[in-house]
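re: that chain from earlier
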Amino acid sequence: MRFLRSLLYMAWLVVTVIPYAVVVLLASIVMRGTPLYRLARGWVYIALWGSHRICGIDSRVSGLSNLPDGPAILLSKHQSAWETLALPTLMPRPLSYVFKRELLSVPFFGWALGRLDMVHIDRSRQTEAFARVERQGGALLARGNWIIMFPEGTRTPRGSQGTYKTGGARLAIATGVPVVPIAVTSARCWPRQAFLKNPGTIDVSIGPPISSVGRRPAELMREVETWIESEMRRLDPQAYSHAGG
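^ sequence. v structure.
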């Protein structure tokens, strides 16, 4: 049954993303910025509705009151594609993701993504990539968008911890905006790079903003890492029991 539900959900994503991406591409001829973002976000609600109705995946969110009124950089745990879909539906401002440019080649989804106000980088050219993040990220923050980055750089399996890179902290210090740490237990239901989805509830916990003023990148990222990883162990203790909690 789990296999059939997962297969049906995959079909749901494919069948819905193609026409929606075409609409976004056509609309982008005359529409850009926040209006186009909101139009594109409509498909995200469709994708999440499917994950709930077909696969039995629910979510529980805490800490929304921690979100600041002004510009911010969101730094989130990354366990699956679920949070990339869900976070735009939770945030009061348009999100600009920092992501590898290879995603732009994904048929329909990537083509539409390329028309939005995002920051796509070449990971093989780190110095050039950060210059692009700083330049475009600063401009997007000034326009009212929030920047979102996954400091571990890639999806991590449930109960594991990757290396937290300082790019998000460096951008925050360069622009003077706070960072907001986010813990997500999505691998509980949507395992990393796994086709099969599990019914259950995903927890999203949003931490208090952390000021970047007068901070060093490594120091700031250590504080982000400490909060996220401590919160992950609180939200999903069973996943970390092998490491002694």
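The first strand starts at residue 57 and ends at 62.
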